[in-house]
Fold:
Amino acid sequence: MLEALGAWIQDSGSLVYFLAPAFTVAVAVLPVPAEIPAMINGMVFGPLWGTLVTWSCSLIGAQISFELARRCGRPLGARLASERLLARADELVESAGWPVLLGLRLLPTVAFTGLNWASGFTAMRRSTFLWTTAVGIFPGAVVFTSAGSGVLALMSRSEYRIGLYALLALLAFSVLVYSLSRRQRQ
Structure:
């Protein structure tokens, strides 16, 4: 997969400088892991500029998700849930305040896109959503973008290539086993 990704980056030429950020925005709106475009940005732009691209494009995508949920999701939610339930959700968001949202943003186990949409369903203020997202996603943007930059550097050194592939295979196998065992318990 990494070789295919590296080939795609090289074959895309200067178009990759548009495609990588656009992919980052799209992933922030769709339920797709955000780590992948962050790593691509690290491979394309390097750790510093890649982090800036990942962070800013993720903010744009997060705001798009929030606005779509606010405009489309809230009316749909009003049809599916009682007004009392929606009012309760708004009360929870209001009483929890920004520390909870910021804390959720800093947890790598909380789905980025899901939190974007869920925030838009509530009466949360846009400014609170935006600044907690900006602060909360920055550490992950640094880590995953730098990881992508590091993977590209490792791929270029043939003596590390076999070990890298073995590590990625082990990681993929571990995720598969974990997912299957979790599904079986449900």
Q: What stands out?
A: The mean pLDDT is 79. The first helix runs from residue 2 to 12.
